[in-house]
Amino acid sequence: MDARVKALIMEEFHRPVYCKECNGVMVFKGVGEYRCEDCNGLEYDDYGTVRNYLEKNRGANVAEISNATGVSHKSIREMIKEKRFEIIDNRGGYLRCEACGANITTGRLCHECEMDYHRQQEAQARINRMSSVTQISASGTIGEEGSKRFKRTR
Ligand SMILES: [Zn+2]
Ligand SMILES: [Zn+2]
Prior knowledge:
By secondary structure, this protein is mainly alpha-helical. Helices cover about 45% and strands about 10% of the residues. It has helices spanning about 5, 45-55, 60-70, 75-80, 110-140, 145-154, and strands spanning about 25-30, 35, 40-45, 95, 105. A hairpin with a 6-residue loop joins strand 4 (about 95) and strand 5 (about 105).
């Protein structure tokens, strides 16, 4: 995996990094779905959230999707523009994976490169968690509530 993949804007789609329940690392399972590697809890990123909503509410417009899911108009438009939704647009012909050039039908990365991307994020999350645990126990001042709220409002 090269730096190009890292530079992709998938970060825009708010991705669950740590489990709300147990603070375990959330592992990407595909189509915007993540499972906690510790307690098996399920969460979604913005894409997963919108996708779930659209499966039950076909033909919803951007405002309706945004109101129902809390995902910003901007993010939803990005997803539509990138043809991330087979539901909305399945004509379009072939796209190419931005990392390896393989033919893909939706999104920006082929399945393998998308999985690689998420494995990298998860590895980084494990490292970050270890170093933040060390910091908290050393200083004893970083409140769990505070850091969670900070991540949420992003
Ligand atoms: Zn968990
Ligand atoms: Zn690829």
